[in-house]
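Title: Prediction job returns without error message
Component: structure pipeline
Severity: low
Priority: P3
Assignee: unassigned

Description:
Job completed but the reporter wants confirmation the result is attached to the right record. Sequence as submitted:
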Amino acid sequence: MESKITKIETQKNNKDRVNIYINEEYAFSCSSELVYYHKLEKGKLIEEKNLNEVLKEDDYIKAKSAALKVIEKSFKTEKEIYKKLSSKGYNDDIIERVLKFLKEYKFVDDKKYTELYVKEKSRCQGKNKIRNSLLNKGINEEFINDKISTVSEEKEVEVALVLINKKYKILIKNEDNILKVKRKLYDYLIRNGFNGNVINSVILQTVKEEDFIKEENEEDKEKSLNELYTLTEKRLKIVQKSENDEQKIKRRIYDYLLRRGYKYDDIKRVFEDFYS
């Protein structure tokens, strides 16, 4: 079925788009470049399938423009562009076409994005957080492993020390319990993506007993040891359900208690009671 174009007018607020009228009624708007490409003009007869081609091409132009505006603000991943365009109502065919264009001209490059992201975030985050963030952004795990492997544990320790020192200075102003401070520091670094080895290392380097004015009296020490003994007993029962090797059991319980902020000497003393 053919229809006649009866009017083509440039939009007042956007000179790059025009309104198309068919049979004296507004039909649709499109990019002005499509008018020239498809040779649209007043009085021309146009079939419905050709109208659909124009509309589809216009969707592609609008989607491409929307994607480029997003990229102008900051570098994005393929998944982020897909979600943005999908939220605007574009179908998968249009989005895939836009992504093909963006990748062809290097406006989107997930491998390069990963490299830049790891380089930037490794200055203030641990590898676990960086990895999770990139996975959520739709980055291929192979790209992540390749780039994140360049961050050494020594580098993580260096970054974690900077973070923990700032946090430590704040905590000791309002907290005089060394165990609570250690737990808060541990949780803080876990949230920032550092692993247990890195965290234990920097806590050991940062937290000093002399920073805590209040000293435990004998009664408090005894109470703390009793709590440690009870906690060790409970943890032992849990670990023994999945582990038979005694050395591995000791190591797991030791790491657990250390993360909870207990002193090495106190843990050793409790262990001697358990394994004497």
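Comment from assignee: result matches the submitted record. The longest strand covers residues 2-10.
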